Amino acid sequence: MTNFVSIRREKLFKLISFIISLSMLFVSFSGVALAAEDDVPSPALKIGKLDLSVWPEYDDPRVLVIYNITLKQPYEFPFRIKFLIPKDAFIGMACEVTETGGHTCKPTQRVNKGDYDELSYVVQSRPTLFFEYYYNPLKGDTNKSFDFIYKPVYEIDDLKVEVQEPLKSTNFKLEPPSTESSTDSAGFKLNLYGFKSVKKDQPIGIKVSYTKSDPNPSVEKKKDQTGGGQTSAPGAAASGSGTGNNTLIIVLGIIAIVSVFFSGYFLSTSRQGVKTKPRGSKPRKNKNNKKI
Fold this sequence. Notes:
23% of the residues lie in helices and 36% in strands. It has helices at 2-38, 244-272, and strands at residues 46-56, 63-72, 79-85, 90-97, 103-105, 109-113, 116-123, 128-135, 143-150, 155-164, 170-175, 180-183, 189-198, 204-211. A hairpin with a 6-residue loop joins strand 1 (46-56) and strand 2. The protein is extended, with a radius of gyration of 30 Å.
């Protein structure tokens, strides 16, 4: 029986060693992939069209900022695109937009750049991009105000800025005044600006003020299709989580669970292979009075 148990233990140790080796190999390949992304260039891109939406208190007490980007040729994939964002910005989505309008979201990198943070992600195959974040510049409880400042990282041929008025708000004012306005199907009033040939590092600022006593956002927040609790603008369907680290953790967790399962299985089968005599049992004797 000792040999049987030893063989079982040897098999168990080999299995655990194999699983550990597999885990280390996976972590190694993940590290190589992340290192490869670090080597992706950040060229001096040009943006053909940028639709920039600023939605205070839309589905959150903060301000939602949305970028819809169409890049201008020339560009060569892959490359890393960069944005300057407020220090307190919470990233909702950073994606490539597919031909069918879906969103392939990406892991992001964030670097301290003084008054702002620089956020970037790698673009693999699409010139149409989507990016959104929340931040909280609002001042005041009922009479609210904030200064929205956009700092371009790249030259832009055609920039359109849309400032949406929260529902149940009054006395909404913009400085400078918008060039035109409209109302969408959901009842939101949209104030529009248009800019041509915007230069890199040419800040665009808009002062926003309004009165709103209702503390609730205009609409109820919905979870995105990744189920991660982050939100997305209407029509933004995510087809990737954009969380490479989470994927690594999940895979390692699965490997750990499999290790525990097989360890338990082999230990239980090894116990079954060892026969023990019941307590109090006496040895039987044969007809020659010898113990068996």
